[in-house]
């Protein structure tokens, strides 16, 4: 078997010719499974650190958080990994990249997988990590043609900018605080005590869509008979047209809807949250009218939006809604 030698910091590393490497930290002392284990630990630590950093205590807007996450993970996965693979390991490596990509998308946008991928592809200049084995080997490993170089060139010389990268901020003499950010919601430090109880209970979340559709009519009928205010909310975004949101009270047909207008920062997830805000405003109106509430039930078709408002300790794009719910309906 023939070997090649690579020199890093005056050290020699013998490499098998047929082994393809991705990253700059190289060693031939670990087998593939050991490399994967180390890399998983490294990426998990990175995600945990990013999760803490984007919490409201740091007062980062959604846009700033997305920029930070995409920059850190892109650099680490593409150029700081110790992962290597041959053709036999192609599927394992590709699956790992898919998992990390979708996890990064959910962390930075809070949206469903498909919507998150669309955001990354269109707005953050991040190359989709779910490409094939040959693309990973031939493109990502190339310093001149790789995505990192493309990102730098795009951020420095393209107008208008896709987003303000940390590199562009440094060279442009700007800081995160100086950048004007249009915020869908404002984040404040520690809005809710960490010992607070859950704001609401979630049902039907683990059911299939077909099963949920079968149960909902009977659930709605039962809730209305019990005197529970039963709401339906929905939001939708049409690219280039704008976003629309609506909330409907099933008990008497009262409804409230809005048009968000065309905004490049608006996402489909934002429209779902706005619809929930409308619902809370309708509930507030009923409370002010002196109605005796026996209970409140909200039906929403966005799983992510529902999960994001269940626990008050979570800090995500729906923070303002969590605070609103907590202050109105939680006695903890």
General description of the model:
- This is RNase H type-1 domain-containing protein.
- InterPro entries: RNaseH-like_sf (IPR012337), RNaseH_sf (IPR036397).
- It comes from Austropuccinia psidii MF-1.
- One of its GO terms (molecular function) is nucleic acid binding.
- The structure is a single chain.
- By secondary structure, this protein is an alpha+beta fold.
- It has two domains: 169 residues, no CATH class; 121 residues, Nucleotidyltransferase, domain 5 (2-Layer Sandwich), CATH 3.30.420.10.
- Helices cover 46% and strands 14% of the residues.
- It is built from eleven helices and eight strands.
- Strands 7-6-5-8 form a four-stranded mixed sheet. A two-stranded antiparallel sheet has the order 1-2.
- α1 runs antiparallel to α2 and α2 runs antiparallel to α3.
- The longest helix has 22 residues.
- It is elongated and about 80 Å long.
- 27% of the residues are buried.
In short:
The protein has 332 residues and is an alpha+beta fold.
How much of the sequence is in beta strands?
5-15%
Structural class: alpha+beta
Described by the principal axes of the CA atoms, the overall outline is elongated
Helices and strands, in order, run as EEEHHEHHHHHHEEEHEHH
Q: Helix amount, in percent?
A: 40-55%
Organism: Austropuccinia psidii MF-1
GO molecular function, one term: nucleic acid binding
Protein name: RNase H type-1 domain-containing protein
């Amino acid at each position: 078997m023939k070997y090649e030698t690579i020199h890093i910091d005056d050290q020699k590393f013998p490499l098998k010719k047929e082994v393809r490497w991705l990253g700059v930290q190289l060693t031939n002392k670990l087998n593939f499974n050991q490399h994967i284990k180390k890399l998983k630990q490294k990426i998990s630590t990175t995600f945990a650190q990013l999760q803490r950093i984007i919490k409201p205590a740091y007062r980062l807007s959604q846009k700033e958080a997305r920029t930070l996450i995409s920059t850190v993970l892109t650099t680490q996965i593409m150029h700081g990994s110790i992962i290597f693979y041959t053709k036999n390991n192609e599927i394992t490596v590709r699956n790992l990249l898919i998992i990390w990509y979708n996890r990064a998308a959910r962390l930075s946008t809070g949206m469903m997988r498909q919507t998150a991928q669309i955001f990354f592809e269109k707005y953050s200049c991040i190359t989709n990590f779910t490409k094939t084995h040959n693309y990973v080997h031939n493109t990502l490993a190339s310093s001149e043609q790789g995505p990192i170089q493309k990102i730098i060139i795009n951020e420095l010389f393209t107008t208008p900018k896709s987003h303000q990268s940390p590199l562009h901020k440094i060279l442009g003499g700007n800081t995160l605080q100086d950048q004007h950010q249009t915020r869908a919601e404002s984040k404040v430090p520690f809005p809710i005590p960490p010992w607070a109880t859950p704001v609401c209970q979630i049902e039907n979340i683990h059911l299939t869509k077909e099963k949920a559709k079968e149960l909902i009519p009977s659930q709605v009928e039962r809730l209305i008979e019990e005197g529970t205010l039963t709401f339906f909310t929905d939001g939708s975004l049409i690219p280039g047209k704008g976003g629309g949101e609506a909330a409907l009270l099933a008990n008497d047909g009262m409804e409230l809807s809005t048009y968000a207008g065309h905004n490049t920062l608006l996402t489909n997830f934002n429209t779902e949250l706005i619809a929930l805000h409308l619902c809370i405003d309708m509930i507030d109106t009923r409370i002010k009218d002196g109605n005796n509430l026996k209970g409140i039930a909200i039906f929403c078709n966005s799983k992510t939006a529902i999960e994001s408002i269940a626990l008050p300790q979570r800090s995500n794009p729906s923070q303002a809604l969590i605070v609103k719910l907590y202050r109105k309906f939680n006695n903890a």
